[in-house]
Amino acid sequence: MLADRLEQWALAYIAEGELKGELKGELKGEMLALQRLLSKRFGAIPADITRLIANASLDDIERWFDRAIDAQQLADIFKDD
Fold first, then answer.
1. What secondary structure, in 3-state letters, does 23-53 show?
2. Could you list the residue range(s) of the whole structural domain that residue 53 is in?
3. For the whole prediction, is pTM greater than 0.85?
């Protein structure tokens, strides 16, 4: 009854926290991968670009990573953002 309901809520809360942790970890990994790619291709990354990446969504980071593969210059990656 109530105890069962509380247990269900607790399990749902734990599962939600684990999912958020996984997403946060994935985001951090993608950020680091993008920064590594940028520094390999273009040298030191300017602080404003580092801040932009740190505050970006996973979708933004994935889009920038794809652009970074073929970009001729750093500005080409972030031109629409």
1. HHHHHHHHHHHHHHHHHHHHCCCCHHHHHHH
2. 25-81
3. no
